[in-house]
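Ligand: nicotinamide-adenine-dinucleotide. Inputs:
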Amino acid sequence: MKKILVIGGGAMGSAFTVPCIDNKISVTLTEPYNKIFIRDLSSKKKFHSSLKIRLPQSVKFEEYSKNLFYQKFDLIVIALSLSGIDFIGKELDKLKIKTPILVLTKGLKYDRKEKKILTISEQLKKNYNIQNISVLKGPCLAKELARKKKTNVIIANTNINVAKKIGKFISTKYYQIEFSKDIIGIEFCSALKNIYSMVIGSGQGLNISSQLFQKSLIEMKYLIKFFNGKEETVLSLAGVGDLYVSALGGRNSKMGNYLGKGYSFKEAKQKFMPKDTVEGEQLLREIAPFVQKKIDKKKIPLMMSLFNTIIKKKRLKI
Ligand SMILES: NC(=O)c1ccc[n+]([C@@H]2O[C@H](COP(=O)([O-])OP(=O)(O)OC[C@H]3O[C@@H](n4cnc5c(N)ncnc54)[C@H](O)[C@@H]3O)[C@@H](O)[C@H]2O)c1
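Predicted complex:
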């Protein structure tokens, strides 16, 4: 029997255990940070307050501690938010973990020393000496996966055989996996869609949102090529696939809608979304120093409009 450790008992980490259990994998789930998730997962019923569902009884919840890593796992899955990546990178580095890693987290980081934007896999490799990293991305609402609704995602690794091996043991009839060698393109797409879904959400009608969708794809294509990914990856599940689901619903497009109505980011956040994390806003702030200096602004007018609204605090003009 295969053994998987999932780090992150939030919506995505917990939903990911469902297909794994259906595949008769032994799943250990741990939560290092959030007290509500720890309470949910350690309770008898395993009712997840964010997914609003009971997780399979056979998921083993264990408190986070370094002792966990003394067990032998076939795969370690990282499902923390971007803010947890440095924490887990340090831990895995300290313990010299060599187990294959699968990253579900989406996002990018600006390396201030090197003046470079790093994907999560690059960060883990460069800063924490972690090798053998695959990434899993694509259009996946955790609530749907947890309810076994049909979901298609993509696993990327420069060594496609490693990606396929992982895909083989986690895929089910309702969780289908595609594969890619373009790990950089896949990671950039899955992060940038948070920015462009805000742009699309700002359109105050389907006609204009469709046009923004089309123009967003052109900008994403330019950016993926700029960062050495493959242009065609924009058409993958991690690109246009994830952009579609994020533009139709979710916090980024909701914020975009308020910006499109004329609210400033601060007003909209305080008035309508005080407790929500808007990943697109965080990403834009993260990559702003790089975008300002290194990217031809004429090639990315939509991102620049959002940039002027969020960073320079102007009303959105698209
Ligand atoms: N690859 C996919 O198919 C897929 C699908 C949906 C979401 N995601 C991504 O997965 C990640 C988690 O999403 P979610 O919906 O589970 O979010 P969530 O808010 O439900 O859970 C967040 C998780 O990150 C942890 N965390 C937050 N801040 C932390 C910190 N400072 N240090 C350590 N841990 C911290 C929390 O404790 C929790 O485990 C996000 O990056 C999201 O974009 C991936």
